[in-house]
Specification:
Layout lengths: L1 E5 L5 E5 L12 E3 L2 E5 L4 E12 L2 E12 L6 E13 L3 E5 L1 E5 L4 E12 L2 E11 L4 E5 L3 E5 L4
Antiparallel strand pairs: 1-13, 2-12, 3-5, 4-5, 5-6, 6-7, 7-8, 7-9, 8-10, 9-10, 10-11, 11-12, 11-13
């Protein structure tokens, strides 16, 4: 049995994400079909079948722009577009775009966000995840489907 709970257009909800956590200081591995580097702007753009790994965190997208910190030269931000898939051991999410701020440890997914946790699903216009503690907030036309029982 499933329970669908449609919500108002301005609705928002806070959720706990047990498997979503990451260490923003861990090494970041990126694979893609191509790479373009712009030294003047301090950014790099990976294009085509982009897969990012950081610990157990995986993000796949059509394109990812990497922004480096001017102060340290470390990666400060990853901006993904072209359809984004975000996967951990227990959750998966899809969205049109994602912005991962490694300085704050915050991941923001926007555009047709769909989060699945086992047989349950949540959708919204925007989801913001605190990767340090695994908490998240979904906003904008939030809809939830909870799986009930074993049938």
């Amino acid at each position: 049995m499933c329970l669908a709970l449609p919500a108002a257009a301005s609705a928002q909800t806070n959720i706990a994400l047990g498997g979503i956590s990451a260490d923003p200081t861990a090494p970041v591995e990126v694979t893609a079909d191509s790479l373009t580097v712009d030294q003047a702007s301090g950014s790099a753009v990976f294009s085509g079948n982009v897969v990012i790994g950081q610990g157990s965190l995986r993000i796949a997208a059509g394109e990812v722009r990497v922004v480096y910190s001017e102060a340290t030269g470390d990666i400060a931000q990853l901006v993904a577009s072209g359809g984004v898939t975000f996967v951990t051991a227990t959750e998966a999410a899809e969205a049109q775009n994602a912005d991962y701020n490694l300085v704050t440890g915050q991941l923001t997914l926007t555009g047709d966000v769909l989060l699945t946790q086992g047989a349950s699903a949540l959708s919204a216009d925007r989801m913001t995840v605190n990767l340090a503690d695994g908490s998240a907030r979904m906003e904008g036309r939030v809809r939830t489907v909870f799986a009930q029982g074993g049938n």
